[in-house]
Structures are given as structure tokens and as C-alpha cells.
Give the backbone structure.
Amino acid sequence: MLFGIFITLGVAVLSIGLRSYQTPFTQKAGALGILFATFLAVYFVSGSWIFGIVGALAWLFLPWLEILTRIRALRLPKEKTLRPKSPPSSEVFPTLNEITHEIENAGFLHVNDAGWDWEDYRQFFRLFYKEEDRAQATICLNEQNDLSFYYLRISSRARDGIIWTTWNYPLSYGLKLTPQFRINRQRPDQSFWQLYQSHKEYLRLQQVETSVIDPMDEEQIQTEIENDLREQIAHNIKQGVLMPADGGEVKYSWRGMLYLWCQFLLDLVRL
């Protein structure tokens, strides 16, 4: 029994250590190590390898606790109208100014701060534009209850309606993107400069010239984001991920909750 405890603790500590590194290989190895440590713990306690496998696989179903409680009760507005918004405090978003300077040093102009609030859910957007490349950059902060995260996004809107986008969204996206989006996903730990270089290379590989990208002004940038949000809600209702609720709101359907769980499994594979 003592041998089993030491082996399990050793695997667990090694797995946590691997997870602390930001490379894809170590992240995946750490995630698998945590599953294996769970298997060992249950196996040495129960003496059954079947129970050990069931215990390890229980991690895969853990997200259903949140899906059946918080997500099932979540309501979102069908129409999202962006309004001018003050930036969050340094306690909420301590690196906002640092990232802003980094984006401006890449030649982007700070256009506006906007966002929307709904019950305990809040979004903040800091919008930038680079006329030379006709590229739009955004710092996006999502807050809900005590959970918050941010990501960076660079978009080029072609005249044919395709939105070429590079981002470092840290999770699998909770809603289906509309068909006009083309996503170049990068790791969350990449700097804005790395994202910007990746975006330019992405456009080059897709043979997207600057001449086919629509130029935009401040008002158009905010209007297009509102249109994107509106079309995304409509698209997810059509796909059965969302369903209408009372008061002009929408909520996740059972199909949508299953979709969220599948997205979690994709995150686990990516990690």
C-alpha cells in the first residue's frame, strides 16, 4: 500500500510539473499523467483495474457538473449592442496597458473601448486599426462571476464576406462560428507581435491581397462586431446549439450542452 502511495504521488507531482511548461508536448504529457495518477490511486485503493479506469475516465465527465448547473441556467441576450465602456481596473486586467503599448508599437491605432454587460456576464473590447494593412486588432476580456480571461484577435474583412481571423482564444469556443469566419488559431502564450506575423503569413498562404480587404473607419469597426455577434446568435439557433427563451433571450439547448462537452474533450486533446 505504501509503495502504491509513493508511486501515485510521484506520477502526480511529475504531471503537475509537466503542466507548468507551456509547450504542447509537456502539456499533453501532464494531462495524461493526471489521468494515470487517478487510475493508480483508485487501483491501489480498490484493487481493481476496472475501477481504476472508471476513476480516470471520471475526469472526462466532470464538466457536466458545470454544464448542468451554471450553463443550463445561463441566459444571453439575442441582440448584443456595444456601448462605450471604461477599461477594467488594474486588479481585473493588470496587463491591459502593456498589451495596448505592444499593439500600438506594431503600428495599430487605438480606436475605441466598447463592451456590453448582461447580468453577471461582461465583455470588454479595446479596438485597434492599422490602415496600411486594413487590419483590425482587438483585446477581448470576458468576465463571468469570479472567472475572467482575455484573448487577442486580428481580423481582415474581405469584400467577399470572408473574415480572416487570427486569435489566441485559450479554450474551445463555446458557440459555433458563422461560415464566413476562417480561423488561424495560435497558442495563448504568444505575444501580439507573434500573432501579427502569423496573421500576415496566414493571409499570404491563402493568397489574400490587401486590395481585396475592405478599408474601415471607427464606426464601421464597432458596427461589424455587433453584426458578427448578432449573426452568431442566429446561426447557433439555426444549428440547434441555442434555443429561444423568455424575454428575447436565448439559452443552451440539450444539443448545445452536448456540444460544449465535446468542446471540452477537444481542449483535452489539444492540451
Observations:
- The mean pLDDT is 85.
- Residues 24-46 form the longest helix (23 residues).
- The chain has eight helices and ten strands.
- The beta strands are 76-77, 83-84, 109-118, 121-130, 135-144, 147-157, 163-167, 181-185, 242-244, 249-252.
